[in-house]
Amino acid sequence: MKIDLKAILTKELFDWIEEHPKRNQLIESIQGEIFQSVVHFREWNDSNYNGNEDWLQFAIRNEEAWRNGSDQMDQYKSR
Fold first, then answer.
1. Are residues 34 and 70 located together in one domain of the fold?
2. Where does the source fall among the domains of life (predicted)?
3. 42-78 pLDDT per residue, tens
4. Which of 70, 72, 53, 8 has the alpha carbon at shortest distance from 35?
5. Cβ-count burial of 57 within 10 angstroms (0-12 exposed, 13-18 middle, 19+ buried)?
6. pLDDT value, residue 15
7. Based on the domain organization, do 9 and 29 belong to the same domain?
8. Do 36 and 1 share a structural domain?
9. Are 49 and 43 in contact (CB under 8 A)?
């Protein structure tokens, strides 16, 4: 998951990261932490999640169901 750090960080912090000798590792680490935070937030706020299965599989399945549902809605709208 790519996260646009420039959009969410202050200019000073983003510039500091850009100039850091281990820039790529730092960016990967920050993006990973943000992704994990999003996953945990969604996990805790999704009442259908039972806590036993892998969250990513659960989220992907829900995303596929949502896309299938929205595809059907698009078909109805085009009629």
1. no
2. Bacteria
3. 767 666 666 666 667 777 787 888 777 755 545 555 5
4. 8
5. exposed
6. 94
7. yes
8. yes
9. yes
Output the pLDDT for position 31: 87
pLDDT digits (tens, 9 = 90+) for 19-30: 999 999 999 998
32 and 60, same domain (yes or no): no
38 lies in the same domain as 55: no
52, 40 in Cβ contact below 8 A?
no
> At which residue do the structure tokens 């999704």 appear?
46
Count of structural domains, the chain: 2
Q: Specify whether 59 is located in the same domain as 32.
A: no
Q: Which long-range contacts (CB under 8 A, 24 or more apart) does 8-17 make?
A: none
The pair of structure tokens assigned to 27 is 């960016």
- pLDDT score recorded for residue 24: 93
For residue 74, the enclosing domain spans 50-79
